[in-house]
Write a structure and sequence with these properties.
By secondary structure, the protein is mostly helical. It is 61% helix and 0% strand. It has seven helices and no strands. The radius of gyration is 15 Å and the shape is globular.
Amino acid sequence: MKTLFLYTILILSCLFPASGQETDPLISNETALKVIEIFRQDPLSVKGKGAAALILRFTEESKDVVVQLSARNVPWLSTRMDTDAKSRLLAAYLAGSVKSQLTKKNRKDDPLAGAEQVIESYQKMRKTNPSLTVPSVEEWIKLKSAGKLAAHFAAPESAAPAAK
């Protein structure tokens, strides 16, 4: 899991570089929620890319949220695909889990909310790039259509079937 996290940070740091200023103020919870909405509206836009960088920064710095990255929660990170698409899907996962925690005022990772946001963002990304296919997200879409996505994330991680 540590390797996955380090790989994730490497990808995001390349695509969404920090401002370089150590004196950047902390992002408030209210601002984070607004930034998440900007990302959700258009994850592929310039504003969406900037929002993704802020979502990552907020997730790293905030003591009000916790997001656990694992092979079940972000399975596309270990697959060969466009790095930009990988990072947008990761930002979507973070946005979903963070939004859930902030709105519920419950500091507990919410992989289901993260997955639902990934599905929403993925479908928007496919409208722009119909050739984009991410098998693990396609599997989540099937599970959601069958009413089984919540059960997939409710099961202990070792017991959950791997998304294909």
